[in-house]
Design a protein that fits this description.
With 220 residues, this protein is an alpha+beta fold. The chain has two domains: 122 residues, 2-Layer Sandwich (TATA-Binding Protein), CATH 3.30.310; 88 residues. It is 49% helix and 17% strand. It is built from seven helices and eight strands; from the N terminus they run E-E-H-E-H-E-E-E-H-E-E-H-H-H-H. The strands form two sheets. The protein has a six-stranded antiparallel sheet with strand order 3-4-5-6-2-7, sandwiched between helices. It has a two-stranded antiparallel sheet with strand order 1-8. Helix 1 crosses helix 3, helix 4 runs antiparallel to helix 5 and helix 5 crosses helix 7.
């Protein structure tokens, strides 16, 4: 098997601590914000009108030579706040590197200093993840076994490749942890070297296979 490698993903950030002190955390976050970050009151007001009373904080970052202009939303949770979105202000879509760069800068310059003041903890997910973080070890081994041995010009059509592919589908269906279709496509292309066309066909087979097995079980 090839060396375990991951793909770049959008990071998550949560700030966790005593629910009774979330108001203090809110004040600390707002006071800690400094250029190029600032509180975006208008965007915050608009979101609050649609949030049914949830506590929301919106920050805005000005563009510079390193990162584009963007808005960042913190949404209240029972134990603190969570970044629910980072959206660009000028470019059409943030890359993984840009999104994570904005999140990491926010963590360093605002989230961690504010959390430290009031006794909260900042939790950040990894910027790269592997199969084992999405599915069970058995499912991961089945997919890796198929992909490593398959003829990448024929997909799952060869009988031996098809047997390994069907084993992966069955194990995926039985597993409580289902692999997201887009993550499967990206893993096939970015990690294991499939071309986009064959990866897309395999993803279609994956989705159909799980739907078929689900329908079969329901009719038994």
């Amino acid at each position: 098997m090839h060396e375990k490698r991951g793909i770049e993903v959008f990071q998550d950030l949560t700030i966790v601590g005593p629910q009774s002190k979330r108001g203090e955390l809110r004040e600390a976050l707002i006071k800690t914000a400094a250029a190029p970050w600032k509180q975006a009151l208008d965007a915050e007001h608009d979101l609050r009108r649609m949030s049914r009373g949830d506590d929301i904080i919106v920050f805005q970052r000005e563009a510079d030579s390193r990162l584009p202009a963007a808005g960042l939303t913190l949404w209240s949770r029972a134990s603190g706040y969570e970044i629910t979105n980072i959206v660009p202000k000028t470019v059409g879509q943030l890359t993984y590197a840009q999104y994570n760069g904005l999140l990491q800068e926010f963590e360093r310059s605002i989230a961690k200093p504010a959390a430290t003041i009031v006794g909260f903890v900042v939790e950040v997910s990894a910027p790269r993840q592997t199969l084992e973080e999405w599915v069970s070890p058995e499912v991961a081994r089945a997919l890796e076994g198929f992909s490593h041995l398959a003829n990448k010009s024929t997909g799952s059509s060869h009988p031996s490749d098809q047997a390994r592919w069907l084993r992966f589908l069955i194990l995926s269906y039985r597993s409580a942890k289902k692999l997201d279709s887009d993550l499967l496509r990206r893993w096939l292309v970015e990690v294991d070297g499939w071309d986009e066309d064959h990866a897309f066909k395999l993803v279609v087979e994956y989705e159909f296979g799980l739907d078929l097995l689900t329908a079969y079980d329901r009719q038994r």
